[in-house]
Amino acid sequence: MRRCSNIPLIQSRDHDFKCEAFASCDCPELQCDPLDLEDVYIALAPELSPFRFQEHLDFILEASDFDEICRLLVRMQALDQRRQFGTREIIKGCLLQLIGTVCELFGAPIKALAEDNAPQKSRRDALARMSEYVRQNLSDPELSLKKAASAAFLSPNYLTHWLRKETGKTFSELVLERRMHLARTLLLNGTRPVGEIARLCGFADEAYFSRRFRHAHGLPPGQFRRQAEPEWAPEIFRKDP
Predict the structure, then answer these.
(1) What pLDDT is attached to residue 49?
(2) Which end of the chain is more exposed for a tag (fewer CB within 10 A), N or C?
(3) What's the per-residue H, E or C state across the chain?
(4) From the CB of residue 182, how many other CB atoms can be counted at a distance below 10 Å?
(5) Which pLDDT does position 25 carry in this prediction?
(6) What is the Cα–Cα distance from 179 to 204, expressed in whole angstroms?
(7) Fold exhibited by the domain 173-238
């Protein structure tokens, strides 16, 4: 079993099977956002364990166990091709049997990871990767949620959810905040023209940059710089951008 974009991909001799984590409707007793399932204690939903810890474990099976998994997958595939009343429940039962087998085989490392709060550490690591990517690409006008999520090895939905949960901000708000901070630093430390500062902060349009800066700080960039200049500043620092 290997991981593909946060979805376990089970490779058989003839087919690949994607096994997506249960949505909240499959575990109604949990009553939580599907994107927060990794925070659920494994005792409450052990069937989620392989999905929660897929980043930390390679679920490599012995031949006999793999044959059993393949048998279940083939049966689910056959059932899916002739669906009728009750088929969904039978398929779900096969899936639970498959997941239960994996949980039984990897019970010890799964419990160790749960006790070590591995998902929370993974979240912090992923957000750190995203933060570093944004820092290195802040001047790129094409910086996007999709690119940052890819750099963090997350889906855009997960990154959006985790950012909101950890910082209370959206990705766009976070990027704009950092760009405005960089703009202030450049305006107050040097004589670069506003147009150049706009480009260094990832704005292709100087007028748009000025509007965003004024909205954030109450003053256009040039006036912000002039008001921040000390009275003793030499003439070279008083150039009107």
Answers:
(1) 77
(2) C
(3) CEEECCEEEEECCCCEEECCCCCCCCCHHHCCCHHHHHHCCCCCCHHHHHHHCCCCCCCCCCHHHHHHHHHHHHHHHHHHHCCCCCHHHHHHHHHHHHHHHHHHHCHHHHHHHHHCCHHHHHHHHHHHHHHHHHHHCCCCCCCCHHHHHHHCCCCHHHHHHHHHHHHCCCHHHHHHHHHHHHHHHHHHCCCCCHHHHHHHCCCCCHHHHHHHHHHHHCCCHHHHHHHHCCCCCCHHHHCCC
(4) 17
(5) 41
(6) 13
(7) Arc Repressor Mutant, subunit A (1.10.10)
The answer to pTM > 0.85 is no
What is residue 6's predicted lDDT score, i.e. its pLDDT? 41
Tokens at 139, concatenated: 């001047």
Residue type, 95: L
**Structure tokens of 235?**
């003439």
- The CA distance from 194 to 192, in Å, is 6
